User: What shape does this take?
Amino acid sequence: MAALAVAVTLATITFVGGIPFLLGAAVLVAFSFSDSVTLSPLYSMYGEAIAGAVVIRAFGASSKFMRNMLRCVDTYIFQVAVERSKEYTDIVREKPEYVEPRPPTSWPLKGEIKCEGLLIRYAPDLPDVLHNLSFDIKPGEKVGVLGRTGSGKSTLALSFFRFVEPTEGRILIDGLDISKIGLTDLRSKLTIIPQDPTILSGTLRSTLDVFHEYDDKEIYEALRRVHLIPAEDAAEEENDAANANVFRNLDSNISEGGENLSAGEKQLLCMARAILKRTKVLVMDEVRVFILFYYYEQRCLILTSARQATASVDYATDELIGKTIRHEFAESTILTIAHRLRTIIDYDRVGLDVSIVTTVAHRHPQVILLDQGSIAEFDKPARLLSNPNSRFYSLCKATGKNEFAMLKKMAGV
Assistant: This one.
């Protein structure tokens, strides 16, 4: 029995422990062999490269190899330059700066806008961004445009500047087709205030008066109206060099891009430019909600675009700008592009594009609802909010219970 027990023990050790051990050893040997086979070319190449480097250096041929390498690099760069030059020759030129007959110097006088069958795409092989868009904006109306990202809000604003040309349709301002007007004549009549304004380096004077068209008194008055300086005599402000307010001195240095200014101050400077320029069409992009609330007063058309309410301007600045707008831009026609429903809930008309394009009248508010670039609803905001089946109602309700109640209150429902 003892011999049998010993035999069983040896057999168990052999089959249970020995065979797996042997298999593991075999696998380890196989991996080691594979590793050596894989790395041997690298070791061989490394050794050959070291030996070659020694030979090259011994014969002084390193400079020759360097020159050949630089020639290859230069050839590649030249080929890229030729390709880029070819691309430049294929770029479609902008339309002429001036087209005869030129519009009257007083144009636009009323701020009436008509959009007829507007269809816009960014390239012939790309889908349409705006589809057969038609609407009328009468002088003094307040028009809001609201929509999700990619809905065409910015495209609509850019189309007024002809940064994108319509594939079909046209835009008329005071009866003139803007496609028949030179770009300089058209864009000189428009002013845009983006969320991130373009500020060039130089003095405060050159920032506000790029073409040296206004005297210091007018510039100081514009700064007062946007509340960048208090209502004091211009002479005192100009001579008070010790004052921390850089806007008191027109020779104050402005860094490239306005880096020494806050985002709100840059927007206010753009507002001061608009006051100086007295253009009939003002486009505002990405502004705060409280600013938009007060964009009711301008003697010309205001186009406002605000995709997101950001912290560019604080609440106090919003109120100051609102006062400026009410005073400086009276009897205006306003087009507002915004992401906040509060921005346009009390407008004359409202329109939705992919989300909304809102058109609102100060005295007779109405709403234009666009679906996929086409008008789906056109009525007063209050009436649409009273209709649970309207898309505008659904959009407002989706903001939440408290916000929905506030929107209805603002709309007078």
